[in-house]
Amino acid sequence: MKHLHMLMALLVVVLFLYQSYLVLSANRRAPRVVKIANHIVYALVILSGAMMLMQLLSANAPVQWVFAKIILLVTAISASIKAFNNHATPTQRKTGILIAAIAYIGIVILAFAKPANLF
Known about the structure:
about 80% helix, mainly alpha
């Protein structure tokens, strides 16, 4: 399950970078296939993460960092929605991409560090 989750997380970042490149360089929207793939990959990341969280909870492992990752994921998704919206202004797009990028960087840092005393 861990490998599936890591693969899907990598695909989330790659799709985000591709969509950001399209919006920032050519001010174009992503093709419909990319949007559908994005939804599928997000669903698989959430499902595989939830399954691993259940395993961690059953082992009584410290999971504070997982909850921080969930908050950052919600932030990244909401900022991406605003950034890739058709009716967003260029400033809103750039700000949304920046916020989502910072959230994804935070998720990656938490995934590698796994701090036990986060809260």
